[in-house]
């Protein structure tokens, strides 16, 4: 049944490489915090290095299991820690404009190389990846992206300073300062700003180019019904000020993972997609308390996620 469902809905999302510049002119003066923006949860997990060590934040029990039964734990990690299939450029081309980037330094690594993470480390390195993003922005001068850098496991103060220096060098004048007066497409285009860079560490406060953490509404639920119930509850409490993310990503516990060896996060996401899709189509962006802003999901390629999220902006007209 699952394979029939996958065959029915899996298709490449429409290319939305320049969707921001193609918005109706009326929306050019709407703050980005009031637009509907597609986001990628754990954006770099498409290239996890299955041979890399576990993050040091993982429990000792899991470390022990992984050391003794890696033939079982590693396939499970691949099935459940992989949240995306498309690479960073493909995600940009599909229309993703918010990227959840979890950064770490490998334990016992004598180099200063930084990697992305989700349970384990990625093959892709941080600086190389962000240089690729900056290159893409050069050829798409009217697209604005939001990079949410977080976690920073294993980084000391010196590494933070070096990373921030590299980020400023890579993006240069494209970095939008956090005190910008008017956060609209028209104003950002006129100023040449293309990158809102959120940096979840206290060292960011010294740099005007770095934004504070962006609140992520994470349900931590295993099915669409509970996910929607959580998000509806949050909507009733009113939207946060500024940028915020409504996460559509599902989560299971390790008991479920161990007892369902043929299930993966991908199949779980697709099984629940139709119910999530119906709810998503009823949402709207804007300034009202129940409106959404950034909407982040898993496997943004196999389901028509970006098209739906971008289309919500029509409700502002």
From TrEMBL:
SMART domains: PLCXc
Domain of life assignment: Eukaryota
Phosphatidylinositol-specific phospholipase C X domain residues: 29-200
GO MF annotation terms: phosphoric diester hydrolase activity
Alphabetized Pfam families for the sequence: PI-PLC_X (PF26146)
Xref: InterPro entries: PI-PLC_domain (IPR051057), PLC-like_Pdiesterase_TIM-brl (IPR017946), PLCXD1/2/3 (IPR042158), PLipase_C_PInositol-sp_X_dom (IPR000909)
GO BP, one annotated term: lipid metabolic process
Name assigned to this protein: PI-PLC X domain-containing protein 1
Record organism: Carassius auratus (Goldfish)
Taxonomic placement: Eukaryota, Metazoa, Chordata, Craniata, Vertebrata
């Amino acid at each position: 049944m699952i394979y029939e469902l996958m065959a029915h809905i899996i298709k490449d999302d429409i290319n939305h490489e320049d969707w921001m510049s193609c918005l109706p002119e009326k929306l050019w003066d709407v703050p980005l915090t009031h637009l509907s923006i597609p986001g990628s949860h754990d954006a770099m997990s498409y290239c996890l290095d299955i041979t890399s060590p576990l993050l040091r934040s993982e429990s000792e029990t899991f470390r022990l299991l992984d050391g003794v039964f890696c033939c079982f734990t590693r396939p499970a990690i691949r099935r459940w820690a992989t949240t995306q299939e498309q690479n960073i450029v493909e995600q940009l081309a599909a229309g993703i404009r918010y990227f959840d980037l979890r950064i770490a330094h490998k334990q016992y690594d004598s180099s200063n190389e930084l990697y992305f993470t989700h349970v384990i480390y990625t093959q892709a390195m941080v600086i190389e990846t962000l240089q690729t993003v900056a290159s893409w922005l050069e050829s798409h001068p009217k697209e604005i992206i939001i990079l949410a850098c977080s976690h920073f496991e294993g980084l000391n103060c010196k590494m933070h300073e070096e990373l921030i220096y590299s980020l400023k060098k890579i993006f240069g004048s494209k970095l939008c300062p956090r005190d910008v007066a008017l956060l609209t497409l028209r104003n950002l285009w006129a100023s040449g700003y293309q990158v809102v860079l959120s940096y979840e560490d206290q060292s960011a406060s010294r740099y005007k180019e770095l934004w504070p953490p962006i609140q992520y509404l994470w349900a931590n639920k295993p099915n669409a019904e509970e996910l929607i119930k959580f998000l509806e509850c949050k909507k009733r409490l009113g939207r946060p000020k500024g940028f915020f993310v409504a996460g559509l990503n599902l989560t299971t516990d390790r008991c479920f993972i161990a007892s369902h060896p043929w299930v993966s996060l991908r199949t779980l996401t697709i099984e629940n997609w139709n119910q999530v899709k119906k709810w998503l189509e009823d949402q709207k962006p804007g300034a009202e308390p129940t409106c959404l802003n950034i909407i982040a999901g898993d496997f943004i390629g196999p389901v028509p996620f970006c098209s739906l999220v971008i289309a919500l902006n029509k409700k502002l007209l």
